[in-house]
Structure formats: structure tokens, C-alpha cells
User: Fold this.
Amino acid sequence: MPELTSLQGPESYIPYGERRSTAGLPFTTGYVDLQVSGGTATLFAVSFPDATDDSLILNLINTYRPLAVPLLTQWVQQQQYPVLIDLRAPGSQHTQRADYLLQKEGAFTLPVVFLWDNYSAGRAGNYMQVLYSNPAISVSRLSGSGFTAFGKEQGNCFQIDRPVF
Assistant:
């Protein structure tokens, strides 16, 4: 995850306990302190800055989709930490952020924060779209900017834009 040493802005955080996945998976995990609602909160951070790993990660997500509700319910009961998905490359600038709330009535409420940079804006849109792919889970966008990169609005790079004649 990109190294930050202070909580200077809403997208800044302090990483600690960071580790590479022991199962050979293409991401790092750890706990970070992040500014949330005017205060500081500890979040479980998952970082996948390399776009070449997206196919594997999205395949894992799709494989475990039928188990999403019981897995997330157990996660919230055991960990009780919000989740941070960090798509930024090391040393990146112009961080953008979006906050979501995943809910299943009677089962769990899980805050999820996305961080991305100019180069990962399209990927961020794809991962955020995955949040809405399970009809059993209610998703609310709490805050955050649109998918912008280099000062322009970015769409889903896998969505076909049909020309208007």
C-alpha cells in the first residue's frame, strides 16, 4: 500500500501490520487508521494496485458470490472492522475516495471505503459495480467523488458506449 505517515486529508491513512497474502494471492492486507466522519477509525485494508491481477481477483469474487452473505456476516461478527479497498499504485497522487455501506437486514452492516488514483479510476468503477451484483445485499453510497481521472469523468471501461446518430 502507498506509504503515508499522517492523517492529513480524508484519503490519508497510517498503515500498520501490513502483510502479503500467505496463500500466494495477489494482494496485501493490514490494518490502517483512516479519517472517517471527522474522527479516526481502524479499517482492515486490502490493496491490489496491479491491474494485471484484476482477472484473478474478480474470478475469486465471482466464485464466492453465493457465499457472500454468510461470509460477510461472519466477518462482521468476528472482525468488527470496516474494509478499505485500495487500488492506488505506490507513490500515486490525486487520491479519490468513495464510502459505501453494505447491509443485510438481521445479518450485518459493513462500511467499505474505496481509494483510487487517476490510473485506477476505471478499475475503481468496475470494483464498485461489483458491490451491486448481489441482490441479497443492500448497498448505499455514502460519499465520494465520481470516477474521474485526469480531470475527466470516467465510465466503466467494459461497458459498450453505443454511438448516437
Confidence is low (pLDDT under 50) at residues 1-11, 13-21, 147-165.
